Amino acid sequence: MILLKRLGFIPAVLIAVLALVSCDDDFTTIGGELIGGEFDSLPSYSAGVQAHSKNLGAVQTNGLPVNLLGVYKEPVYGLQTASVLSQLSLSSPKPDFGNEPRLDSVILTLPYFSTRLEPDEDGNPVFRLDSVYGDSPFKLKVSRSNFFLNDFDPESNFEDRQKYYSDQGPVFKASLIGDPLYVDESFQPSASEVVYFENDPSTPGNEIDTVRVSPRLRVPLPTQFFKENIIDKQGSSELSNNNNFRNFIRGLYFEAEPLDGSGSMMLLNLSGNEAGIVLYYTAFQTVEDSITEIPGSYKLDLGGNTVNTYSQELPAQIALEIQEASEETGAENLYLNGGAGSMAVINLFEDEAELEELRANNWLINEASLTFFVDQDKVFGGNSEPERIYLYNLKTNQPLFDYRIDQPNVDFPLISLTNHSGRLVRDEDKNGISYKIRITEHVKQILGEDGENVKLGLVITQNINLLANSALKNPVDGIDRVPSASVITPRGTVLHGNLESDPGKRLKFNIIYTETNN
């Protein structure tokens, strides 16, 4: 019998518990009401499970909520490079720069995700950069692009949204115009507070304010370019609306290049209110033969249609293992990598015979879970390991029911929905041990009368609250989409699969149950 081979050990104390249990209910309530609690005294069943990896290839990267920029050496999967093509938009149409405006400076701002900590001994503000990977410099260039980003696909008669993919970097680079607007040969994000000075038009004499803001890229751009293309275009059709403007200046390409085989990569919100390009200018007003200088500023927004491009070559041995993995038997290792990386496909239960036998038992399922163990021989541990993974219905690309009934935390995704999908369990040296994902309700549905045992997908997630999906450029064995939360992280891990030789590290599918009185 399949069940006799897979049943877990029942402690001797369970016999004593059985003698005290009332038979008034239609099932044996071993241990009382233990749903969501501890189940050490209950019988368990080790169910069949197969898992293997898939290399995803190019993935859709427009429509993402945030974007990656930089260079990151992932310990397992190697060097990754992320660049961004972003539209520019008018913050307001038909800007009025006043009489004979003089452009004084142009400032590009890209805030980093950061957390304000306790001030230092001198009272100075201290910040921690969040979502920055790596700690080495890379080369950063910002150039004007002549590539037009469509909102809708002309091949679908403009009925469907246009898709752009992570492998289109060479196409975008071929469309760059003129010299770069900004180059930093050795750029690295800083956690320091940014301090600058700015005119305050609301004060008498336009007093100078000292502005202190959280860590960010804040650099000057050449004024001549923006004078010719913005200030001197005052009153023109190019600045009359955003459709015209986006056809005139089609976008900026933020290009990252590695310097020494390492680097750092940032997660950025280019559509945020603080991101963009500000033009600081002075207009002149004549009153009774007296000329008055009137300072002003105008903002160009980033965001709109934004596309990430990724460059990464998967190590040959990993690529070979993924290619040779079998859906029928599973694999020894599961390779999960964000960006345009790789995922795992999970098949629950050994076969239909096992399913039918379980359905016939009519057990009360107290808990069902998958436990994935980190391959510590391949993963280097520490901060490079992802804290969360995400399991979902591969047929519908939607979360499992267990996800939907868990408690989300909108403000802190790192600790959201942890009853369903636990954070990485680490050892005393901060190295990853395992992830546990509870799928109790999903298994109940499968074992129900009309339950469907669908394949499940498993990916790294940057934000487990994010449920959007991104298309694959070339579907892989029927997989045509991947969770966007995986696309916006460069991190990766390696998990032991169902063919791992060490039983203690092997992928586990465990069901804890209560027997019913049939």
TrEMBL record:
<feature type="signal peptide">
    <location>
        <begin position="1"/>
        <end position="21"/>
    </location>
</feature>
<keyword id="KW-0732">Signal</keyword>
<protein>
    <recommendedName>
        <fullName>DUF4270 domain-containing protein</fullName>
    </recommendedName>
</protein>
<dbReference type="InterPro" id="IPR025366">
    <property type="entry name" value="DUF4270"/>
</dbReference>
<dbReference type="Pfam" id="PF14092">
    <property type="entry name" value="DUF4270"/>
</dbReference>
